Please model this.
Amino acid sequence: MEMSAISQLTPIRTPSVNKPTPAEVSQEFSSFLSDAMSKVNQAQVESSNLADRFAAGEITDLHQLTVAGQKASVMLQMTMQVRNKMIESYQEIMRMSI
Model:
């Protein structure tokens, strides 16, 4: 089996794209966080609704309830960790000297 030589690699040039302004980046980040928070809230509400339905006897599948509860719990824990890291980063930036 013979290996052919690798041809000369040419650098990839990114097309000249307008870089987003800080306001646009801030808006996108805000939108991302808002969407993430709404998904966490939705998971919490879904878990609560399933628990209510289980207590009323409408749902007999305990696995479904457990999975929804764990999913909501993990999402909330992740959100709290991201929040903590963001606060820590902000505090570190504020401690920087100019």
Q: What stands out?
A: The mean pLDDT is 86.
